[in-house]
Design brief:
The protein has 10 helices and 17 strands. With 386 residues, the chain is α+β, with helices and mostly antiparallel strands. The protein has 2 domains: 218 residues, 2,3-Dihydroxybiphenyl 1,2-Dioxygenase, domain 1 (Roll), CATH 3.10.180.10; 144 residues, 2,3-Dihydroxybiphenyl 1,2-Dioxygenase, domain 1 (Roll), CATH 3.10.180. The structure holds fe (ii) ion.
Length: 386
Amino acid sequence: MSRKIESVNYGLEKIFEGAQDFLPLLGTDYVELYVGNAKQAAHFYKTAFGFQSLAYKGLETGSRDTVSYVLKQDKIRLVLTSPLNSEQEINKHVVKHGDGVKVVALWVEDARSAYEETTKRGAKSYLEPTVEKDENGEVVKAGIYTYGETVHMFIERKNFNGAFLPGYVKWESDYNPEPVGLKYIDHMVGNVGWNEMNIWVKWYEDVMGFVNFLSFDDKQIHTEYSALMSKVMSNGNGRIKFPINEPAEGKKRSQIEEYLDFYEGPGVQHIAMATDDIIKAVTDLRSRGIEFLSTPPDEYYNAIPGRLEEFSHELREDLKRLKGLGIMVDADEEGYLLQIFTKPLQDRPTMFFEIIQRMGAKGFGAGNFKALFESIEREQELRGTL
Ligand code: FE2
């Protein structure tokens, strides 16, 4: 593993000066998953991850074909949607991909302009600008396709003050497990096919005005058996970060290939959720039954003090506790970060969550990639997919 990667993490502000502002993004609005059974999935995300009930749309609200449960934790909104009959389009998505992310919705000032600017730069339309209204006001929605069948929806909500979107009712539940302290989406990673990473990097540059601010090649991200390449795309204000991975040749099948095989195409690989107390969050998540990738070996933890010293940072957390919980540490010039990855969250070995706490570092844990991938390979071995 090259230690030079971290030094690529130069001042972001300088890089963002080059970003174009034809698509100003205020933040992530919501992430929508198409799932086989939204009611049960909602129970899982509430119980295990501490999401709160926010809004609902289904038979009771006049939605005859689909049902959606909206969950919230601080700034993170998850929407879980299932079809209510066999005619519904969503069935095809679920049959093909299993449970997975369909929509990465972006909060904008002007959805019409976002749609116009991106489609004129080559984006494939998913939904033309559409106004939805109810007694709480109106929302303008528009959507474009990104990799695979994944969609970016632009959401303009300045004239709306309801629970979520028009058509949804507030979901009052008697069952409200405590949040675990997840605050916002730090980044969302997409897996794309062989030799497609640069196509999608260019797409995010040309169509969305994003910039590529970090790159890792297969010489940097590899284990004895497998390799991948990754480029991190960011919008102009740095609020939206989408790393994009593609598989690279190795002795055995990489985790990206495993994902592409089981998702049957490109899609969202993981959602990284930020917390400011990862020790508490991971302690809670473990006690609620969330399984994480196996803890790296002793040598990994023994090397951490040296790695922090290299950049003159002091670890504020107790290393023994981090090790006990399997939390990994990485450092760069600006600080360090703490992170951990769940096992896949549905039957297919596809999407998972990352829990991340940034202590100044702006990277993505490149120093942990090797330990992380070796851990994933142990799981692949068990699944017979390495
Ligand atoms: Fe990540």
